[in-house]
Amino acid sequence: MTSTPNPKSSTKRKRGISLSPSGLRRLNQAIQIVEASENAGKRFTVEELSKRTGISTSTLSRLWASKSGIDRRILHLLFNAFKLDLLDGDLQIDSDEVEAKEIQSWASTASTIVQIPYPSGSLPVDSPRYVSRPEVDDRALHEIVQPSCVLRIKAPSGFGKTSLLLRLLHHCNQLGYATVSINLQQADTEALADSHAFFRWFRAVLALKLKLDSSQDQYWDELLGSKLSTTLYLRETVLPQLHRPLVLIINEVEQVFEYADTARNFLPLLRSWHEEAQHDEVWQQLRLVVAYSTDAYLPLDINQSPFNVGLPLTLPEFNQEQVQTLAQLYSVSWSEQDCDRILALSGGNPALVSLALYHLNQGMTFDELLQSACTLKGIYRNHLQRLLAQVNGNAQWTERLAPLVQGTDAIHLDPIFAYKLEGIGLIQPTSGGWKLSCELYRTAFQTYLLN
Fold first, then answer.
1. Are 60 and 46 in contact, with CB atoms under 8 Å apart?
2. What are residue 180's DSSP bridge partners?
3. N or C: which end of the chain has fewer CB within 10 A?
4. What is the pLDDT along the chain (451 residues), one digit of tens a residue?
5. Which backbone phi and psi does 447 adopt, to 5 degrees?
6. Who contacts 3 (Cβ-Cβ below 8 Å, separation ≥6)?
7. In angstroms, rounded to a whole number, what is the distance separating the alpha carbons of residues 315 and 66?
8. Cβ neighbours for 142, distance < 8 A, ≥ 6 positions apart
9. Does residue 191 contact residue 255 with C-beta atoms inside 8 Å?
10. CB 191 within 8 A of CB 352
C-alpha cells in the first residue's frame, strides 16, 4: 500500500549545518567590505566568489538558497576567505522542525542584498535613490535655459554635486543643447602648474568632446597669448559652428586655486566671457556652470573673480523629510527618533546617510550601526581613515583642529586653513565662524586624533 505523502514534508528542511541569521549577516557584511575596497562596491558574481573561496559555484548557490545543510569545513573556508572566524553563533543545526518559510525569508534577504548597489560616487540619472532638493535642483534647471547664464554650484564631496550635474546635462541634452563637461581633477599637475600648458589642455579637451578640430596651431597665436587665443577660438570657431546653445560645465574648479598663475589667468577669463555676453549675441549662446567644493580662499581680486557673478547654489544637508524619503527608497523602516539620531551623527551628509541606510537594509541592526559608527571598525571606517590620513599628513593641523574638536562653538580660522578643511568636507561655515560638519567627526577625532 502506497503511503500518503505528508503535506508538510515539502516545507521541512533537511538535516545538516547551515548559517544562522546572525552568521549570514556577518558573512554578507564582510563580503560587502571587500567589494567596497576591491571591486568598486559592485557585487561579486557566484563565479568570482567561487574563485576567491575555492568552493564550487553549486555549493555556494545551495548555501545562499538554503536548500540543504553545508559541511562545516566548507563554511570555515568561506569565512576565512573574508577574514572571519566561524563562531558557534554563526551556525544552526537544521532539523525537521525548521520550516521552509524561514529559509525563504533569508533567501529574500540575500536577494535584496544583490539588488541594491553599494552607495559610492554619483547617482546615475535613472537611479531610484536620488532625492531631489527642489530649492536647488529646480532653480538650476530653470536658470540653465537663460542666455549667457552662469551657475555656481558649491558642495563638499558626498553632497550630490556630480549627481546634480548629471541631471543638468541630461536636461540640456533633451533640449537639444550642445553639452561639455570638463573635470579639472583630470588635468595633470604639469598642466595645472603652468597656465600656458593649462589653456592648451583645456582647449584640446573642449574640442575633443565637441568632436571639433583639435589642432592647436591653427587657432593659437603666441603673440596674442593663451587667454585671448582661447577666447577667440571659443567665440569665432566653436560657438558659430554649433548653431545652438552650449552648456559648458567645469567641475572641481578649486583644483586651480593652489596654482596662482593658472588661477589668476583662468578664473577671470570665465568672468570675462559672461561680461562679453552683455553686448555680444554670440556669447549669449554660452551657458557656463562652475562646480566646486569650497571657495573659502581665492587668490584673486574680487573684481576679477567669477565667484561673484551668476546664480550661486549651495547644496544643503538632507533634512529629516529627505532622510525619511531616502529610508523608504532603501526599504528601511525605523522610528522618527532613529532618523534624528542618524541626522545628528551624519550632519545630514547625503553620502553618510546613504551608507547607513544601505547597511540597515542589508541586515545590520540600528544599535550595531551606532555602537561602531565612530570607530575604525564601523561602516565609516574607510571615510574616517581617509580624513585622518589627510589631517595627520600635516603636523600643524592637529593642533589647529583641537579647538574645533573639543568644543561645540563656531570659531574663526585662517582662510587658507579653512579652505583646505572645507574642501574635504570636514568643516562648514556659520554666521559665527567655522564648525565641524557632524558629530561623527567630533567623536572619531577625539578618539583617534587628540588621544
1. yes
2. 248
3. N
4. 444 444 444 344 444 577 777 777 788 777 877 776 677 666 777 778 888 888 877 777 767 655 456 777 788 888 888 888 888 777 876 544 344 444 344 444 444 444 688 998 899 998 889 999 999 999 999 999 999 999 999 998 899 999 999 999 999 999 999 999 999 999 999 999 999 999 999 999 999 999 987 666 677 777 888 999 999 999 999 999 999 999 999 999 989 988 989 988 998 899 899 999 989 999 999 999 999 988 756 655 555 566 677 899 999 999 999 999 999 999 898 999 999 999 999 999 999 999 999 999 988 999 999 999 999 999 999 999 999 998 887 778 888 888 989 888 889 988 888 888 888 889 998 888 999 999 999 999 999 987 7
5. -80, -45
6. none
7. 45
8. none
9. no
10. no
Closest CA to 447 of 346, 360, 361, 377: 377
Largest CA distance in the chain: 105
Task: Read off the C-alpha cell for 256.
Answer: 586651480
Give exposure, 233-267, as e/b (b: 16+ Cβ within 10 Å). Answer: bbbeebbeeeeebbbbbbbbbbbbbebeebbbbbb
Residue 193 — φ and ψ, nearest 5°?
A: -75, -20
Are 27 and 70 in contact by the 8 Å Cβ rule? The answer is no
Which segments of 214-259 does DSSP mark as H helices, in order?
A: 226-232, 239-242
Report CA dihedral (173, 179, 184, 185) to the nearest 10 degrees: 30
Q: What ranges in 210-253 are assigned the alpha helix state H?
A: 226-232, 239-242
Look up the pTM and report it. Answer: 0.72
